[in-house]
Design brief:
Layout (H helix, E strand, L loop, with lengths): L1 E4 L7 H14 L7 E4 L4 H17 L10 H6 L11 E3 L19 E3 L10 H12 L16
Length: about 150
């Protein structure tokens, strides 16, 4: 399935219609979620989620004591999708650049030197090969029994 995240308020009606068609046509997909970010800022996403939660508290719909990680996740633009397993950052830049700051906490990262326009199927296969070699621990530290 394809999901497009970001603020849509500045898009034309034509672009909004195309986004709706893409998301609707691919909504049944279950094996892979492709997230495209247009006019997206992770800091803004977190700020908007915080504002929405604050309004619910103000309106008595939510108690401050009930705010937890799940509450925040439910108010993000990505609430309908799982956190990413792999984030590919093209151009060799080793930074997130304000992208999925909340969701990336346990993601694996791949930083190919290739620029986005040249990121093709072969480059994607390389990324998947590297990812397949990773030891996913989701934040757990594995003690080395040989270390002293």
């Amino acid at each position: 399935r394809v999901i497009i995240i970001g603020e849509r308020t500045h898009f034309s009606d034509k672009v909004l219609t195309m986004i709706d068609q893409i998301e609707t046509c691919t909504a049944g997909g279950e094996q892979l979620t492709l997230v495209l970010a247009f006019n997206y800022s992770s800091r803004r996403e977190i700020m908007l989620a915080t504002e929405a939660i604050a309004r619910k508290v103000e309106n008595g719909e939510l108690s401050p004591n009930d705010i937890n990680e799940e509450t925040i996740s439910q108010h993000l633009m990505t609430s309908s999708m799982p956190d990413p397993d792999l984030i590919i950052r093209t151009s060799g830049e080793c930074r997130l650049s304000n992208f999925l700051l909340w969701q990336a906490s346990y993601a694996e990262f791949y930083f190919p030197e290739v620029l986005w326009p040249d990121f093709d199927e072969e480059e994607f296969e390389k990324a998947l090969e590297v990812y397949a070699q990773r030891d996913r621990r989701y934040g757990l530290v594995i003690e080395d029994s040989t270390a002293k």
